Prior knowledge:
Helix content: under 10%
Oligomer: single chain
Low-confidence stretches: 1-25
Mean pLDDT: 91
Shape: globular
Largest sheet: 22 strands, antiparallel, barrel
Structural class: mainly beta
Amino acid sequence: xxxxxxxxxxxxxxxxxxxxxxxxxxxxxxxxxxxxxxxxxxxxxxxxxxxxxxxxxxxxxxxxxxxxxxxxxxxxxxxxxxxxxxxxxxxxxxxxxxxxxxxxxxxxxxxxxxxxxxxxxxxxxxxxxxxxxxxxxxxxxxxxxxxxxxxxxxxxxxxxxxxxxxxxxxxxxxxxxxxxxxxxxxxxxxxxxxxxxxxxxxxxxxxxxxxxxxxxxxxxxxxxxxxxxxxxxxxxxxxxxxxxxxxxxxxxxxxxxxxxxxxxxxxxxxxxxxxxxxxxxxxxxxxxxxxxxxxxxxxxxxxxxxxxxxxxxxxxxxxxxxxxxxxxxxxxxxxxxxxxxxxxxxxxxxxxxxxxxxxxxxxxxxxxxxxxxxxxxxxxxxxxxxxxxxxxxxxxxxxxxxxxxxxxxxxxxxxxxxxxxxxxxxxxxxxxxxxxxxxxxxxxxxxxxxxxxxxxxxxxxxxxxxxxxxxxxxxxxxxxxxxxxxxxxxxxxxxxxxxxxxxxxxxxxxxxxxxxxxxxxxxxxxxxxxxxxxxxxxxxxxxxxxxxxxxxxxxxxxxxxxxxxxxxxxxxxxxxxxxxxxxxxxxxxxxxxxxxxxxxxxxxxxxxxxxxxxxxxxxxxxxxxxxxxxxxxxxxxxxxxxxxxxxxxxxxxxxxxxxxxxxxxxxxxxxxxxxxxxxxxxxxxxxxxxxxxxxxxxxxxxxxxxxxxxxxxxxxxxxxxxxxxxxxxxxxxxxxxxxxxxxxxxxxxxxxxxxxxxxxxxxxxxxxxxxxxxxxxxxxxxxxxxxxxxxxxxxxxxxxxxxxxxxxxxxxxxxxxxxxxxxxxxxxxxxxxxxxxxxxxxxxxxxxxxxxxxxxxxxxxxxxxxxxxxxxxxxxxxxxxxxxxxxxxxxxxxxxxxxxxxxxxxxxxxxxxxxxxxxxxxxxxxxxxxxxxxxxxxxxxxxxxxxxxxxxxxxxxxxxxxxxxxxxxxxxxxxxxxxxxxxxxxxxxxxxxxxxxxxxxxxxxxxx
Length: 1008
């Protein structure tokens, strides 16, 4: 056995040596070719290597080279600023086209030259932009670079995010890790993703190593957040005064005496007469910090390349007391991307990343309470000094507390406020949110050129794990309600009434746990070849699937499809593309779960025609057109909706047997085995151009799409006997349709004036929407949703106030103005128009009031400006949103009962202010009439935001030559600096949540 093994190895070595010798004896092919770049310009100094044969040369000034190479091998062509190219050796090889590295655009399952895209695609070289535009989120300001993206894509309500080809959340990746972001908008651009890409796709590709030696980059940042503004609520004295007024308005007597109100106003004893400002510096920091540090290591050679990113950031909290002082959010991320050239025809990549997040918090919603609790309800802390030294019972109760704050306070409250945000933050314990994300992607690329020239095969597998849970301690605590008296002219606590008890179990609680696994796989054959130098043919044949399983959800989210893309262009002048996908969805029955999504695109580069080819103005001009149908199940709410559902209920009805309850079987829906996909039908036109020696570039798209056959369960499509008592036999059907029409535009300008290099980029996205088909029945046609925008706001039309008691009484009786159906009205209540003239104000008088902009504002604008002078760079980013309306319907505005009063009530209706009032009368009762959607509360959400300003300085490269430190730069950045809007204060104010902030950052970056 031993000798046979030796013999076998010897034979193999002999065969290899013989093959090598024959390879050396093979007659080489002489290649004389030219290397050209963008717009056919020759590439000078390009390196041309025949790795097998060992031959190497460079192109001359005309981009020409001559080289002898072994047949059936490949040439590797590399040039500064261009993507490497692998070209099969052939004696007919005459011209090689390189693509600028920054023009290589990741699109669906492949990379393409930006010059060859057929519209509906926006690409952002994020890596380069980040150097002048420090960001803390990958989508920060993206609408100013990618036209068509405005928080959604072309008005669609949702989009698919893929990171390195795998469905992942944007918070899975830090901005320092991102290489490029591509927004796929048109149906033709997303077709290969099948159903899951029907509403648009955002592709994020992470950075990878190159073969130019090891590089180390370190970046550190420190910044502060400053609140833009806080809600403005009334103090105790003013609140009590107006609450008395509200009671009088309701025909009730005043509740608070003038002496009590004076005591609250004087502030002489804020513990007996509390005036709690939840937004004061006693409880909130004026600023809170954020820090981050990132290290990037990349390098490699022709055989292996690597990229590593290790990052950490920490952000504080605005809360400034008790356990909340230590609130922080911390994140550690580690990423490693490795590319390997295994053989001359086989490559592989392995990517792995891990994210460790922890957020320390408290067991209460402080800002939610701040928007609801009245300032006079209770005092958060009770000073022990107000207890008389001779009051042994009260001292005994107070000293028995386990939560004496700063050695001098006990926790305050009332019988109604036994748990309150202050006591909870001081004594209720804390919690920590733990989140772990692990992502792994591996793939193989095979060059099958020996099987068929231009053929390759690629496959990739992604596996992600996500884990989230809360761990913390929930402590019981006692609060104390003081009973006050005045003794010798001094306020003292006569007795303390405790509620609750101090309890610390020491047991850590684990809650809100969630586990998620995502598995994504695809394999594809790619073909790319040129015939007779002018006919360029490409093709992709693929199969793709993913499955996402989430804890506590029985049905996994699955999606799969096969796809085919066929592309052809003649001299990069005339283009034709067909893309189709066979989609499968388990949400439908049998053959109804299959659908074929076809798209077609055409392109014409006018700048290559004789009438423009030698133009001094037009450098590139291409028209594109595409049309397609995408089958999708994205808006199908659940699986198996085609099945009928029955449930059993106890006690739904009574029998005749002495009122005994009986069990009933109720139907929830009927069956519809014909239920199938909704379909996105679309036509789009595109224009791409470069002008004035490429100083101006333009990209524009016009689109119209319809989402038809949406799945609905409508009561208007079936007879009323399909609904009986609690049962419904109405099935889900394909019926509703939505339409979107619009355009996007991107215009970029680049120019040098003297020593200053200017770059200006602008974007615009505008769209309209329409409910083009609805199953509905309204008595009045003006209430039909069909024909109106999808984000329509509906409400009543106001007609001022009822100006007198007589006018209100006449309305209530129906003898004067139209009678309101929302309760009795009084002078100072809002009066509405009787739209249908039936003498009654009710929901049938609601009309269309405007667009809500729920899927992005109708018009979104973006602007980015860069100015470089020597080693200084100035960058600014601004965005604008126009055409959307919004409703002031939060508890900040809709105030009745015992709600907290904000400053808006100061201009309430009274007899004295009836002609200038902007707010209805105050009431301590329920005010259904006043607080409902109407144009009285409507406002314009138009705004312009100066989102970012950054000034950077990079030390001259020559000053670092030959030293360990290769580069050094510094920058200062301001975020969310300015908002210009009529309703600026409201738009910048958060009600019931942490405040919006301006962020000021200082950063340093170094290269080694």
